[in-house]
UniProtKB/TrEMBL annotation:
Keyword Isomerase: yes
Listed PANTHER family: PHENAZINE BIOSYNTHESIS PROTEIN, PHENAZINE BIOSYNTHESIS-LIKE DOMAIN-CONTAINING PROTEIN
Organism: Cyprinus carpio carpio
Coiled coil start-end: none
Name of the protein described by the UniProt record: Phenazine biosynthesis-like protein domain containing 2
Gene encoding the protein: PBLD
GO MF term list: isomerase activity
Family listed: Belongs to the PhzF family.
Entry keyword set: Isomerase
InterPro entries: Phenazine_PhzF-like
Annotated GO CC locations: cytoplasm
Signal peptide: none
A Pfam family assignment: PhzC-PhzF
Length: 286
């Protein structure tokens, strides 16, 4: 069996920046263990598998199946690998449709082109305030002695969000180095699958980011996800309310960086926009 495979850097306009995803075009569904083996082989934060629907090809079809796997497990929602999947279909396969619809574990996700960016229609996941005392040891492992302003939790995504105090500098966020083993040791209940650390940005500066963030998820086999789109379904809900803004620009402060445009819509969903660079294409032989 031969499977077309691509590596796409998402949420960036430069190669080797943003968040890399492996994208596989699948003619027929594979066994779950084979999906997982391929994702482990690729060893990126996520590998996405696009399958055809209604016997259409990848250039003319408008509806596709989409699944995402980390090196260790399948996940219910992934932003950057969805963006990367649409980039392969629009840019390489020259898909003729104005909108692509992906059928996923999180429902239908639509992606369209707009100038040099791709815009994804995603769910919005509002987090709830979390008692810091209940998870004080986990917070200590995640951010050390850096002061915390607020902690929230999203039950839908099982993501914990830690907002650093407004007195913190961006360098304090970028210098965090939580250890995977310590995070796993201090949270083994299954309630938390990822930790978002965020802080208020500097919208008056250029290019004017409204907030910064980083994302850690050793519970699904990823110590740090370079740019996590699904985390921004939580962040956008939180920061839109705190900043009283529907449109925001966000930056993920991993070593690779990444920029996301966010728009909280009146219908309760979220537009996530970003650019993508296809850096590798080849054939997976099984």
């Amino acid at each position: 069996m031969e499977i077309p495979i691509f590596t796409v850097d998402a949420f960036t306009n430069l190669p080797f920046k943003g968040n890399p995803a492996a994208i596989c075009l699948i003619e027929n569904e594979l066994r779950d263990d084979l999906y997982q083996s391929i994702a482990a082989e690729m060893n990126l934060s996520e590998t996405a598998f696009i399958t055809r629907r209604n016997s259409m090809d990848f250039s003319s079809g408008a509806r596709f199946g989409l699944r995402w796997f980390t090196p260790t497990s399948e996940i219910p929602l992934c932003g950057h690998a969805t963006l990367a999947s649409a980039a392969v279909l629009f840019y390489l396969k020259k898909n003729v449709n104005p909108v692509l619809v992906f059928e996923t574990m999180s429902g239908e996700l639509c992606v369209r082109q707009h100038e040099e960016s791709l815009i994804m229609d995603f769910p919005l996941n509002k987090p709830n305030p979390q008692d810091q005392h209940e998870i004080k040891d986990l917070l200590k492992v995640a951010v050390g002695d850096v002061p915390i302003q607020e902690v929230c939790y999203s039950p839908t995504t099982r993501k914990l969000m830690i907002r650093l105090a407004d007195t913190c500098s961006r360098s304090e966020l970028t210098s965090l180095k939580p250890e995977a083993e310590a995070l796993l040791k201090n949270e083994s209940t299954g309630k938390i699958k990822g930790v978002i650390v965020t802080m208020k940005g500097a919208p008056t500066a250029q290019p004017g980011y409204d907030f910064y963030s980083r994302y850690f998820a050793p519970w699904v086999g990823i110590l740090e996800d370079p740019v996590c789109g699904s985390a921004h379904t939580v962040l956008a809900a939180y920061w839109s309310e705190k900043l009283n803004k529907k449109k925001m620009l966000a930056y993920q402060c991993s070593s690779r960086g990444g920029e996301l445009g966010l728009e909280v819509r009146d219908d309760g969903r979220l537009n996530i926009s970003g650019q993508a660079q296809i850096v590798l294409q080849g054939t997976l032989k099984i």
